[in-house]
Specification:
With about 475 residues, the protein is of the alpha/beta class. It has 4 domains: about 160 residues, 3-Layer(aba) Sandwich (Rossmann fold); about 110 residues, Transcription Regulator spoIIAA; about 120 residues, Transcription Regulator spoIIAA (2-Layer Sandwich); about 55 residues, Nucleic acid-binding proteins (OB fold (Dihydrolipoamide Acetyltransferase, E2P), Beta Barrel), CATH 2.40.50.140. The strands form 5 sheets. The protein has a 6-stranded parallel β-sheet with strand order 2-1-3-4-5-6, with helices on both faces. Strands 15-16-17-19-18 form a 5-stranded mixed beta barrel. Helix 2 links the parallel strand 1 and strand 2. It is globular, with a radius of gyration of 23 Å. The chain binds iron/sulfur cluster (SF4).
């Protein structure tokens, strides 16, 4: 398909759905005496949070008002996550509870979407066992929500749509953002990497990037609306633009966003180490609005485990990349994801992870005990270590990381940082600010500072960072 026909297909699709929003509006004005309320609950990652913002935009366009209470809502939607099986069990539990809400309020519409519902087995189970679920749709067709609501309202049909054939990005969807000064900006969807423990490529499909012009246009709108921090999102942002003919890779896109006028900063996630280039590191160093903060998930320190995970790098290559990043940006703060107890991992392998975190000295870690995910290759691998044993390793990892983070925090005392003031502190008259390296500082300040940048000197670390505002 040529770019022009793809663009016009997307425009047609947007227009079609905007047409449905008008039809839904008419139907709900007849059905409800007052403006109906919609409740959206999001499970899982930032990508899902970002998707939910678009879903809320569509619901508001359809005539709903958003509410924080599922009890009051006339439309309840769960945007689900498939990364862990216990997260799926939680969703089933929450959907089960909706049965009572629906009994009390028979006209309530119950909808499910997201990575979990993209799986045909899940969709079948919901269809059979949860007859009060009215609408279910997958990750590839979420822009068609107005059409699904229309079909349900107009024909009383249960709408189940989780086809994976539609991989076009529909631009221009309405959006209701959760935050006022921090915003998610998805630059791509899907993933091509097939790490053996991960379900994402199966439920979100192959990688596809948004056009750079669309990303820049959205960034401009965010900046104009007062957003101070833009998080560029993708499962692997480093492979942005691969296979597209516009010639803009992630480093170039970062530079384009950085060049926009305005007082804001830029973060991005997630970066796959195998695609993290020196060009990107130099770009980060040269772009004043890009935070000196890199989330570079290593997952494990053992080469045997990394191979089984299908991560396409070994520990030496990873450490070399970290060294290069630090040579180019001496003040960069690093963070990572670690999986403890991957199938086949021995204590000796796990010790390699401990050695690696000592060498890298991450500012923070997102740590998980491996849990099998049905449908992935790792779930079929022999796994002989007990959960109890893995939990011991996990505690050892946390303790080691705690010491590293503690030392880094102590080294920040006396330094002054530009922080984005994010929320009220625990004590009255205090504010919490975040540095570009992700250090969180509590300092005396007025609430009116929230959503602005200010300079703060760190004066103490007693388990948390304390600072004073510099004038
Ligand atoms: S890079 Fe690996 S872990 Fe990340 S989304 Fe893709 S398959 Fe999953």
């Amino acid at each position: 398909m040529t770019e022009t026909t793809k663009q016009s297909a997307n425009t047609d699709c947007l227009q079609e759905q905007l047409g449905y929003t008008e039809r839904v509006k008419k139907l709900i004005s007849k059905r409800y005496a007052q403006q109906p309320l919609a409740f959206v609950h999001t499970y899982g990652c930032q990508q899902n949070v970002s998707d939910s913002e678009k879903i809320k935009g569509l619901l508001v366009s359809c005539g709903y008002e958003m509410t924080d209470s599922s009890d009051d809502a006339d439309f309840v939607l769960f945007n689900t996550c498939a990364v862990r099986e216990n997260a799926e069990d939680r969703v089933y539990g929450h959907v089960g509870q909706l049965k009572h809400n629906k009994r009390k309020k028979p006209g309530m519409i119950v909808a499910l979407c997201g990575c979990m519902t993209q799986q045909p087995t899940v969709a079948d189970k919901i269809k059979r066992s949860y007859p009060y679920v009215d609408i279910l749709f997958g990750t590839h067709v979420r822009h068609r929500l107005p059409e699904f609501i229309y079909r349900h309202l107009a024909f009383q049909e249960r709408v189940f749509e989780n086809s994976d054939s539609n991989n076009d990005i529909v631009e221009g969807l309405p959006v209701v953002r959760d935050g006022t000064f921090k915003a998610w900006l998805p630059i791509m969807h899907g993933c091509n990497n097939f790490c053996t423990y991960c379900i994402v490529p199966y439920v979100r499909g192959r990688e596809y990037s948004r056009e750079p012009e669309a990303v820049i246009e959205e960034a401009k709108q965010l900046i104009a609306s007062g957003v101070k921090e833009i998080m560029l999102l993708g499962q692997n942002v480093n492979s942005y633009g691969k296979g597209a003919d516009h010639g803009v890779n992630f480093a170039k896109l970062l530079r384009m966003v950085n060049d926009l006028e305005g007082d804001f900063r830029i973060r991005f996630m997630t970066s796959h180490p195998k695609d993290c280039t020196e060009e990107l590191l130099h770009t980060m160093a040269e772009c004043d609005k890009v935070c000196l903060n890199l989330h570079l998930p290593v997952q494990a320190g053992s080469d045997i485990t990394l191979r089984r995970m299908n991560r396409h790098y070994n520990s030496q290559e990873y450490l070399k990349l970290v060294k290069t990043a630090r040579e180019i940006m001496p003040d960069i703060q690093l963070s990572s994801d670690i999986i403890v107890g991957f199938p086949g991992e021995t204590y000796k392998d796990f010790k390699c992870t401990l050695d690696l975190i000592e060498q890298v000295r991450y500012y923070s870690l997102y740590t998980f005990i491996y849990s099998p995910r049905k449908g992935t290759p790792a779930a079929e691998m022999p796994d002989e270590i007990s959960y109890k044993e893995k939990s011991k390793w996990f505690t050892e990892l946390l303790e080691r990381q705690e010491q590293i983070s503690h030392k880094i925090n102590e080294s920040l005392v006396g330094k002054t940082f530009k922080v984005l003031c994010e929320e009220k502190g625990r004590e009255d008259g205090h504010i919490i600010g975040r540095t570009e390296g992700n250090a969180v500082i509590d300092f005396c300040g007025d609430e009116s500072l929230i959503g602005t940048f200010t300079s703060v000197q760190i004066i103490e670390f007693d388990g948390s960072l304390k600072g004073i505002k510099k004038y």
